[in-house]
Amino acid sequence: MTALIIDILLWGSLVGVSVIAWRQDKTVLGSALRNGGMDFINIVPRIALGVIGSGFIAAIIPSEAIVGGLGPDTGWLGVATAVVAGAATPGGPVVGFSIGAVALKSGGGTPQVVAYVVAWALFAFQRVILWEIPFMPARFVWFRCVVSIPFPFLAAAIVMVVGKP
Fold first, then answer.
1. Which residues of the chain are modeled with pLDDT < 50?
2. Claim to verify: residue 140 and residue 74 sit in the same structural domain
3. Is 36 part of a structural domain of the chain?
4. Is 53 a member of any domain?
């Protein structure tokens, strides 16, 4: 039911923005539809690849490996392992979230997987090197990384207190 509500809100927002663009200038709407259509054509295969690939990854990785390193009984060592793994994971959301989903399906602990996803979002090493440092001063980027270190651990601690969703 929640997914349906979110879908309705997203489609409603799209219609609303389309009407605004059409009222401002009809060429803006045409350009937006062309650009959005091309993005859709380029992105959908990648999303499909990530979702299908995560299914294959879940099938090949023995659940014992996930449970041993990121299982619910691994505690803070598992959280630290997840943080390092998240920071080392290359790729965009299709990769990071797919690996998180695989870890959950294979028996990974909720705090550990939350720490993995937060660390991936904050510290993905390849993104820091290839995207952040070329666009922002390196000193600022490293400062941001250092001051962000507690956040995956804090997120895991909150999950440990609150419990499973």
1. none
2. yes
3. yes
4. no
Tell which residue, 117, 98, 97, 114, has the closest CA to residue 164: 114
Q: What is the pTM of this model?
A: 0.72
12-9-31-51 Cα dihedral, nearest 10 degrees: -140
Q: How far apart are CA 50 and CA 95, in angstroms?
A: 6
Number of structural domains (the chain) is 2
Q: Is 107 inside a domain boundary?
A: yes
- Position 160, amino acid: M
| Angle of CA points 106, 149, 50, to nearest 5° | 35
Q: Tell whether 68 and 149 lie within a shared domain.
A: yes
pLDDT single digits (tens) 63-106? 787 888 889 999 999 999 999 999 998 878 878 888 898 888 88
Token duo for residue 17: 């923005």
CA distance 82 to 70: 7
Give the single-character DSSP code of 71: S
Q: Give yes or no: residues 74 and 12 share one domain.
A: no
Burial of 23 from C-beta contacts in 10 A (0-12 / 13-18 / 19+): exposed
Domain with 76, as residue range(s), is 61-162
Residue 79 near residue 152 (C-beta atoms within 8 A): yes
